[in-house]
Design goal:
Elements: E1 2-11, H1 12-22, H2 24-30, H3 33-45, H4 47-67, E2 81-85, E3 91-95, H5 97-105, E4 108-116, E5 120-129
Subcellular location: Cytoplasm
Function: Transfers the 4'-phosphopantetheine moiety from coenzyme A to a Ser of acyl-carrier-protein.
Main location: cytoplasm
Amino acid sequence: MIYGVGTDLCDIRRIAAVLARRGDRFAERVLGPNELQVFHHRRARVEARGIAYLATRFSAKEAFSKAIGLGLHHPMTWRDCETLNAPGGQPQIRLHGDLAAWFTARGLSAHVSITDETDYATSFVVVETRA
């Protein structure tokens, strides 16, 4: 049964501007530890790929927070919600800390889809109860 649905559209140019103003502090505030490693790796290879990665993860966190109905209020935090790729490339939500405990206690599971183009990143999250 569907618990919630969330979607988000993010302007990648806006993320690039924030990075230019604040440097890596913005990425460190938004990304979880595993996402941060991927961000640095991709950005070192191609700047635009790193910025697009940050934008897609920002978008996925926004969509997830909408799907669970909490917005960005405890236990939902930026760093406790990560979107990482499975070996085949499928994005998956990985939760940590209080958010993981809250999510598990409710018997929830999440599905995420993310995509980006030159200027925009978008994500769609469906959260369902495990029956």
